[in-house]
Protein backbone atom coordinates (compact mmCIF):
# COMPACT_ATOMS: atom_id res chain seq x y z
CA UNK A 1 0.00 0.00 0.00
CA UNK A 2 1.22 3.51 -0.84
CA UNK A 3 -0.34 5.53 1.96
CA UNK A 4 1.04 9.03 2.18
CA UNK A 5 3.11 8.59 -0.96
CA UNK A 6 2.35 10.61 -4.08
CA UNK A 7 1.37 8.31 -6.93
CA UNK A 8 0.63 10.88 -9.65
CA UNK A 9 -1.07 14.13 -10.54
CA UNK A 10 -4.20 13.89 -12.65
CA UNK A 11 -4.43 16.75 -15.14
CA UNK A 12 -7.73 17.49 -16.86
CA UNK A 13 -7.51 19.35 -20.13
CA UNK A 14 -10.08 22.12 -19.74
CA UNK A 15 -11.33 25.41 -21.04
CA UNK A 16 -13.29 27.99 -19.11
CA UNK A 17 -15.73 30.79 -19.67
CA UNK A 18 -15.79 33.85 -17.44
CA UNK A 19 -19.18 35.30 -16.68
CA UNK A 20 -20.01 38.35 -14.61
CA UNK A 21 -20.69 36.25 -11.50
CA UNK A 22 -19.11 32.89 -12.22
CA UNK A 23 -16.51 30.88 -14.07
CA UNK A 24 -17.71 27.83 -15.99
CA UNK A 25 -15.21 25.00 -16.41
CA UNK A 26 -15.51 23.01 -19.65
CA UNK A 27 -13.93 19.55 -19.59
CA UNK A 28 -12.22 18.95 -22.93
CA UNK A 29 -12.12 15.21 -22.15
CA UNK A 30 -8.41 14.41 -22.61
CA UNK A 31 -6.54 13.76 -19.38
CA UNK A 32 -2.94 13.14 -18.37
CA UNK A 33 -1.46 11.34 -15.39
CA UNK A 34 1.91 12.86 -14.50
CA UNK A 35 4.05 10.66 -12.29
CA UNK A 36 6.61 12.13 -9.89
CA UNK A 37 9.47 10.89 -12.10
CA UNK A 38 8.11 12.93 -15.02
CA UNK A 39 6.65 10.03 -16.97
CA UNK A 40 3.12 10.39 -18.20
CA UNK A 41 0.05 8.54 -19.35
CA UNK A 42 -2.44 10.14 -21.75
CA UNK A 43 -6.04 9.10 -21.10
CA UNK A 44 -9.45 9.36 -22.70
CA UNK A 45 -8.47 10.16 -26.28
CA UNK A 46 -11.08 7.58 -27.32
CA UNK A 47 -13.73 9.59 -25.42
CA UNK A 48 -12.56 12.76 -27.14
CA UNK A 49 -12.83 11.17 -30.58
CA UNK A 50 -16.24 9.66 -29.82
CA UNK A 51 -17.54 13.01 -28.53
CA UNK A 52 -16.51 14.65 -31.80
CA UNK A 53 -18.09 11.91 -33.92
CA UNK A 54 -21.31 12.14 -31.88
CA UNK A 55 -21.39 15.94 -32.14
CA UNK A 56 -21.15 16.30 -28.36
CA UNK A 57 -18.24 18.70 -28.87
CA UNK A 58 -17.38 21.02 -31.74
CA UNK A 59 -14.33 20.64 -33.96
CA UNK A 60 -12.98 23.81 -32.31
CA UNK A 61 -13.25 22.16 -28.87
CA UNK A 62 -11.58 19.02 -30.24
CA UNK A 63 -8.65 21.00 -31.67
CA UNK A 64 -8.37 23.10 -28.51
CA UNK A 65 -8.14 19.91 -26.45
CA UNK A 66 -5.42 18.45 -28.69
CA UNK A 67 -3.43 21.71 -28.66
CA UNK A 68 -3.59 22.00 -24.88
CA UNK A 69 -2.69 18.33 -24.50
CA UNK A 70 0.30 18.82 -26.80
CA UNK A 71 1.45 21.87 -24.83
CA UNK A 72 1.25 19.95 -21.55
CA UNK A 73 3.15 16.97 -22.99
CA UNK A 74 5.88 19.27 -24.33
CA UNK A 75 6.20 20.86 -20.90
CA UNK A 76 6.44 17.46 -19.23
CA UNK A 77 9.04 16.24 -21.73
CA UNK A 78 11.15 19.39 -21.41
CA UNK A 79 13.59 18.86 -18.52
CA UNK A 80 13.05 22.34 -17.10
CA UNK A 81 9.38 22.16 -17.93
CA UNK A 82 8.75 19.05 -15.84
CA UNK A 83 10.77 20.46 -12.95
CA UNK A 84 8.75 23.67 -13.08
CA UNK A 85 5.49 21.73 -13.38
CA UNK A 86 6.36 19.40 -10.47
CA UNK A 87 7.44 22.37 -8.33
CA UNK A 88 4.18 24.13 -9.12
CA UNK A 89 2.06 21.03 -8.43
CA UNK A 90 3.86 20.33 -5.15
CA UNK A 91 3.29 23.91 -3.99
CA UNK A 92 -0.41 23.83 -4.87
CA UNK A 93 -1.00 20.44 -3.26
CA UNK A 94 0.37 21.42 0.17
What is the terminal-to-terminal distance?
21 Å
Globular, elongated, flat, extended or rod-shaped: what is the shape? globular
**How large a portion of the residues is in β-strands, by DSSP E?**
25-35%
Fraction of residues in H or I helices: 40-55%
List the strand order in the largest sheet: 1-2-3
CATH homologous superfamily name? FomD-like
Main beta sheet: 3 strands, antiparallel
Total domains, how many?
A: 1
Mean pLDDT, all residues:
86
| Order of secondary-structure elements | EEEHHH
Runs with pLDDT <50, length 5+?
none
CATH class: Mainly Beta
What is the compact description of this entry?
With 94 residues, the protein is of the alpha+beta class.
Tell me what you see in this structure.
This protein is an alpha+beta fold and 94 residues long. It has one domain (8-92): FomD barrel-like fold (Beta Barrel). The chain is built from three helices and three strands; from the N terminus they run βββααα. The protein has helices at residues 45-53, 59-77, 79-92, and strands spanning 8-18, 23-35, 40-43. The chain has a three-stranded antiparallel β-sheet. Strand 1 (8-18) and strand 2 (23-35) form a beta hairpin. The model has no long low-confidence stretch (mean pLDDT 86).
Amino acid sequence: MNRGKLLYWYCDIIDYEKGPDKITIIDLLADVKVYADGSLEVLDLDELEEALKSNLITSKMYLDSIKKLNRLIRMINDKNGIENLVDYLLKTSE
